[in-house]
Design goal:
Number of strands: 7
Largest sheet: 5 strands, parallel
CATH class of the largest domain: Alpha Beta
Number of domains: 2
Strand content: 5-15%
Number of helices: 10
Low-confidence stretches: 1-9
Oligomer: single chain
Shape: globular
Helix content: 40-55%
Structural class: alpha/beta
């Protein structure tokens, strides 16, 4: 029997409240906070999850198995997520559902994803389970996920604050480098800020330019350190 048919035959059947039962989601995301939000949604939807924090790790995953769904952040530490989407779009067999995600301007980010060959886009913050499920289901082939009436869950997903603290600690470590990757750091902090709905952090991230004076770097590092300490007290 064909391997694909064997997989379909023995895959657990989806249910109304767990529509992605038996499916595997590859999340290519460098933010622990954002990937934790997706992990929680996958678990509540019945899907297995595999996480990669960079393009290199994602490609290692893809050498081993083909996920049912891939969700790729556009700003990754070792390159552009749109380039990875374009390569994945050309793979055969192709990942059935290929989505991009970003905390950047929605219209331009979504246009990038579609131009690269993606199927759709999830804007950050990704926190509504109903929106998460409906976006994926709108692209899933019928033979993978049967359409059926299901309860609509509008609850917001709240990741563990520890993951937010880990993201801020990572940003502090990047700032401590002799030559911080400012373009990447700006995109990373914007995504984290929008995922966490942290307006003050978003304002700081928006202000990161192509150059950062020593005093500005120290001020940003101190701001992030205060955030980390405040989270430690709350937890």
């Amino acid at each position: 029997m064909d391997d694909a048919l064997i997989e379909i035959e023995y895959r657990p059947k989806p249910t109304a409240d767990r529509p992605f039962l038996g499916l595997t989601v590859l999340v290519v995301e460098d933010s622990r906070y954002a990937s934790e939000a997706v992990r929680l949604m996958c678990l509540r939807s019945g899907a297995r999850i595999r996480r990669a924090d960079c393009i290199g790790a994602a490609e290692r995953h893809l050498h081993v198995y083909r996920p049912s769904i891939a969700i790729v952040d556009l700003g990754l530490p070792d390159g552009s997520g749109t380039d990875l989407i374009a390569r994945m779009d050309k793979m055969r067999p192709r990942v059935p559902v290929l989505l991009g995600t970003s905390g950047a301007d929605r219209a331009s980010a979504q246009a990038e994803v579609m131009k690269a060959g993606g199927d759709g886009f999830l804007a950050k913050p990704i926190e509504s389970l109903a929106h998460f499920q409906s976006t994926i289901m709108s692209h899933l082939p019928a033979d993978i996920c049967a359409r059926m009436p299901r309860p609509v869950d509008f609850d917001a997903v709240e990741p563990d604050p520890i993951t937010f603290r880990e993201d801020l600690t990572h940003a502090i470590a990047l700032l401590a480098l002799e030559e911080p990757p400012l373009g990447y750091l700006r995109r990373f902090l914007l995504g984290v800020a929008r995922s966490a709905r942290d307006a003050a952090l978003e304002g700081r991230a928006t202000g990161i330019g192509d150059q950062l004076a020593a005093t500005e770097r120290r001020a940003l590092s101190a701001f992030l350190s205060q955030r980390v300490k405040a989270l430690a007290v709350v937890m």
